[in-house]
Amino acid sequence: MVSAKMFLDGGLNLGMAARRLGSRVGTAAKEELRSKKAVWRDSLMAAAFRAIADRIPFADLLVEVRDARIPLSSECQILGNYEASLRRIIALNKMDLAGSSNLKAWMEYFRERNCISCGVNAHNKESIKQLLSLIQRQVSKLKGANQCDNNYTATVMLIGIPNVGKSALTNALHQVGRISAAEKGKLKHATVSPEPGETKDIRSFKIGSHPNIYVLDTPAILSPKVPNVDVLSKLILTGAIADFLVRKKDVAQFFLSIHNCSEQYKKWEKLSMKDNERLFLNGTTEQLTTSELRMRQKNQIPTDHTQDPIVQDVRRTLFETISSFGGDISCEDEMETLIALQFTALQEAFHVSIECKEDAHDKVAGKLLNLFRTGRLGHYILDHLPRNIQ
């Protein structure tokens, strides 16, 4: 049986093999950047960085949006001078991909550093209401001498690195804020895309009245300095940086090494049973006829890896490959052996042709990364807390 360990209070405790594979991804990306075949940040991002820096002093409140899966690695370096301030909120977006229970230790970590933080899911209305309420409370504290001025206007600036969900949060805050304030008029929409770097300029959206509160959606920015290989590998894995610096297969191998170190696969044990066995265990005597099984298969689109039956097959495949592996995954060579077995097995689960092995592995990698990045393969926090919290 595979030996797997998980750091339950705030993130995964990666083994040496997983760290080495992550280091390979980060190192390959840095080498690509040094070779001048790729650009860390273009002139537009550099200009956006300067424009945002110029506007920060005039904003009443700063909301730094981070990826909840990488609470430290997704830090926006431009806000270093606002580490402990009433003017700053750290919004850990995509909490649905990290798991709300896993974020508790991180919330305590930021609280001990006098940082206001909250977990948020841009696609959950109740979560957005909680973030909006927090923003309104902080604005009230900052209002000070203008407490009785109904015309008081506050500006909230959303800042973050690429693909942390700033525009999705902006749209959600704009919609929920307008409804709660009974505002009339046409809704505006910030551009939302799964690809990083789609927001090109700074736009204003009203999210509250009495006092008036406007949120500024800003372009994604990266620090002028390329981060270390550990941070770089996590930014690539979570999609903060587009897949152009390294091969998708290498990134997918890094994900599998992380997954294999977690306890996630154990949740999918029942998926390794046959359909009729699962139905029996679930308390039903329903038996699927041959024609019913064929109908289910007919309704599937083999090339669409996001369909539930295919996702279930992928989960089952991951469970069976890990649980049946007899090696020690703390050993780098044996971890790579397991990952090679998983790639071969996943080709069948994803219905990928095996005519060309390299092309097949690239297709498997792309589909696997998509399922990870959309939360279909479990909840993960990839950063490790700097120290234990008592």
From TrEMBL:
A Gene Ontology BP annotation from the UniProt entry: mitochondrial translation
UniProtKB keywords: GTP-binding, Nucleotide-binding
Keyword NADP: no
Domain CP-type G: 41-224
Any GO CC annotation of this UniProt entry: mitochondrion
Record-level Gene Ontology MF annotations: GTP binding; GTPase activity
InterPro entries: G_CP_dom (IPR030378), GTP-bd (IPR006073), P-loop_NTPase (IPR027417)
Matches recorded under PANTHER family: DAR GTPASE 2, MITOCHONDRIAL, MITOCHONDRIAL RIBOSOME-ASSOCIATED GTPASE 1
Protein name, entry field: CP-type G domain-containing protein
Biological source species: Psophocarpus tetragonolobus (Winged bean)
Classification of source organism: Eukaryota, Viridiplantae, Streptophyta, Embryophyta, Tracheophyta
